[in-house]
Amino acid sequence: MTSYLLYALAGAALCGIGLFGLLRLSHLLRKLLAFNIMGSGVFLIMVGLPQHQSGPDPVPQALVLTGIVVAIAATALAVVLIRRYYHQSGMTSLEGEAGSREGGPL
Amino acid sequence: MIRAVRTCFIALACIAFSAVLAASIWAIAGDPGQGTLPQLLSENMSRSGVEHPVTAVLLNFRSYDTLLEIGVLVIAGIAGISMSKTTSLEDPELRTSDPLLYALQRWFIPLMLVLAGYLLWAGADRPGGAFQAGAVLAATGVLMRLGGIPMDFLRPGLLLRLGLVLGFSVFLLAAVVSVIGGDAFLAYPPDMTKPLILVIESVLTLSIAMVLLALFVSAPVNDAEDPEEGDPS
């Protein structure tokens, strides 16, 4: 049990927390944040697990670096889409969910 | 009542998901690990043209990933600016007029530009590289925009589109040229590796910064015809 394994297990916990937020919260921005938490959990697992096995491994680190940049761009695009959706429909959550109009302004 | 039951059910499912994930991590961690990838990498480092292993993986051994990544970024950037409703991405109304920000800007912008250049150069032999430099460059752009420094290149037009696709097209060009030369896709000529990586990293930095900045400035939607925020009508 090294500290790197602890990082990987924390990543698993983050995945669970993110999944809960994604399923339970109705506000779109909160869903997006929960999805990002889930992604951070995946990154933690991908860096922590190989480091526990054989020291710092550049290959997963490079993949995670690529993933972080893509995640930032995807998050920014999602924010743009959510704002557009809000201006078109006046709602902060998807149709068919309870409390659609209670979310308040973005 | 139904809501509470549903929440409980979802919470249980998520805890089970986490537990399964943690159990599989534990099982993999117990393995001694038969991966030969780090060894393979350290044996081939001398052929990569750079000294830092992460940069070598990003821009030489797994450059296909990086090429696809900048492609995704360009698509996200173009989709972002086509969603924006502001006709000019340089709207004077969106600026803040904070004297503290103006004072800070004079110190920060030159420093951040130098830092971005350093990070780009440092990527060869220590942590750094195109992505970190691009992120710092984009942050500089955000700061400049908030301070109201005119940035004409952000108007939707030729210059913005050129900046967005520059990194991707130069990368793709380097990849295709090696195919035409009879080599594999994305195989750099052995004696040109270092300058090629440097050129690709520089244009990647510029394009990443442009994409992030374009996504930032295209986020605000201010149109008098649309309902005001917090006023659903």
What does this structure look like?
The complex is a heterodimer of chains A (106) and B (233). With 106 residues, chain A is mainly α. Chain A has a single domain (3-89), classed as Helix Hairpins (Orthogonal Bundle), CATH 1.10.287. Chain A is built from 3 helices and no strands. In chain A, helix 1 (3-24) packs antiparallel against helix 2 (28-54) and helix 2 (28-54) packs antiparallel against helix 3 (58-89). Chain A starts with a helix and ends in a 17-residue tail after the last helix. The model of chain A is unreliable at 99-106 (pLDDT under 50). Chain B has one domain (49-217). Chain B has helices spanning 2-30, 37-44, 53-61, 63-83, 99-122, 130-146, 158-180, 193-217. The longest helix of chain B has 29 residues, at 2-30. Classes of the chains: A mainly alpha (106), B mainly alpha (233). The interface between A and B is large, with 50 and 59 residues. Chain A: It holds the Pfam family Oxidored_q2. Chain A: Belongs to the CPA3 antiporters (TC 2.A.63) subunit C family. Chain A: It comes from Marinobacter salexigens.
Characteristic key phrases:
heterodimer, A: 106 residues, mainly alpha, Helix Hairpins, 0% strand, disordered C terminus, B: 233 residues, 8 helices, 67% helix, CPA3_antiporter_subunitB (chain B), MnhB (chain B)
User: What name does the CATH topology of chain A carry?
Assistant: Helix Hairpins
Q: Of all protein chain pairs, which has the greatest interface, and how many residues does each chain bring to it?
A: A-B, 50 and 59 residues
Strand content of chain B: under 5%
How helical, in percent, are the residues of chain B? Answer: 55-70%
Q: What is the chains' assembly state?
A: heterodimer
Give the domain tally of chain A.
1
- pLDDT averaged over residues of chain B: 80
Protein structure class of chain B: mainly alpha
Radius of gyration of chain B: 23 Å
Principal-axis shape of chain B: globular
Give the helix tally of chain A.
3
